[in-house]
């Protein structure tokens, strides 16, 4: 039985496009794929094609009204605007089903010991997708679909979600608030899209807004002081990661001023908690990160730690 970590991808995810100037572009996941290949990191992982999520899987995180509305809006040609930042082309719906299906497959592989951890290099991202609404480049909340699959299908009782994207994961909070089986820990830049998160919407939310230009030291202190004690108390049986790399100092989307070493550091903290409580079980799903070079280098730093190759 293969025990290599899983790398989940699908070429359908390259076909969803929102216009030539849109930052959430197909080249993002291509840049990550190339960097992992160049650095030799894909040699240590088993590649899998992302399956299409089923309606039953999506319905664990989204209303059926919303699922039917997004399917109905999928255009046969041209594009349809869903919110000011988010649009669908004829391939978007399928790409979104793949991105959510990746999280489901990742969960199955990790919970059946076919992979120690899994990384989903997929788009569209998911953490702004709410129970009943798309938004912020997101259609289905990939991590929330994976988390509910782990809880409802595999029967786990405690799952943590850690979100280090520069933007608050309002969609994940909307879906997972008050689900006592979930602890969500996030850091995000204050006063930035989607302008939420300062007041947590559930007792299971550890929201840490950071002022613009905080830098890595402030971020690390926030995680050490606020995430880690909560994660320790919660003792998750599995950890999902909303891995957004748009807090990098080269990424214009935010101003947290993080660098690759900071993403490696965060990942080491996540791995340590997972090893103590969760048999090392981690599913990491790509969220944001819009400057292809810093995105690819940061994702490689993240994976190098997950693979245990960082020292
Ligand atoms: Zn983001």
From TrEMBL:
Q: Name one GO biological process term.
A: epigenetic regulation of gene expression
Top-level taxonomic group = Bacteria
Q: Which GO terms describe its molecular function?
A: histone deacetylase activity
* CDD domains from the UniProt entry: HDAC_classII_2
Q: Which residues form the Histone deacetylase domain?
A: 22-306
Spell out the family assignment given in the record's similarity comment.
Belongs to the histone deacetylase family.
Protein known as: Histone deacetylase family protein
């Amino acid at each position: 039985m293969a025990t290599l970590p899983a790398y989940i991808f699908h070429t359908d995810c390259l076909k969803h496009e929102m216009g030539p100037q849109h930052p959430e572009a197909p080249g993002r996941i291509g840049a990550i794929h190339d960097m992992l290949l160049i650095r030799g990191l894909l040699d240590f992982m088993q590649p899998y094609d992302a399956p299409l999520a089923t309606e039953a899987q999506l319905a664990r995180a989204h209303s059926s009204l919303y699922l039917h509305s997004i399917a109905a809006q999928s255009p046969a040609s041209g594009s349809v605007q869903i919110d000011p930042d988010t649009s669908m082309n004829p391939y978007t719906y399928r790409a979104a089903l793949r991105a959510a299906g990746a999280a489901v497959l990742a969960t199955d592989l990790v919970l059946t010991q076919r992979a120690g951890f899994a990384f989903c290099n997929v788009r569209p991202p998911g953490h702004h997708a709410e129970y009943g609404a798309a938004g912020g480049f997101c259609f289905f909340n990939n991590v929330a679909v994976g988390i509910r699959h782990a809880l409802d299908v595999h029967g786990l009782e405690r799952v943590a979600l850690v979100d280090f994207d520069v933007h608050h994961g309002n969609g994940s909070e909307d879906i997972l608030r008050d689900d006592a089986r979930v602890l969500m820990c996030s850091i995000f830049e204050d006063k930035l899209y989607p302008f939420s998160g300062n007041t947590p919407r559930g007792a299971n939310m550890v929201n840490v807004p950071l002022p613009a230009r905080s830098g890595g030291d402030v971020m690390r202190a926030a995680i050490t002081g606020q995430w880690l004690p909560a994660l320790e108390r919660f003792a998750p049986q599995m950890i999902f990661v909303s891995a957004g790399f748009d807090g990098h100092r080269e990424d214009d989307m935010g101003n947290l001023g993080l660098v690759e070493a900071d993403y490696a550091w965060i990942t080491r903290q996540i791995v340590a908690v997972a090893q103590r409580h969760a048999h090392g079980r981690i599913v990491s799903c790509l969220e944001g990160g819009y400057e292809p070079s810093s995105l690819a280098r940061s994702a490689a730093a993240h994976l190098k730690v997950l693979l245990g190759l960082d020292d």
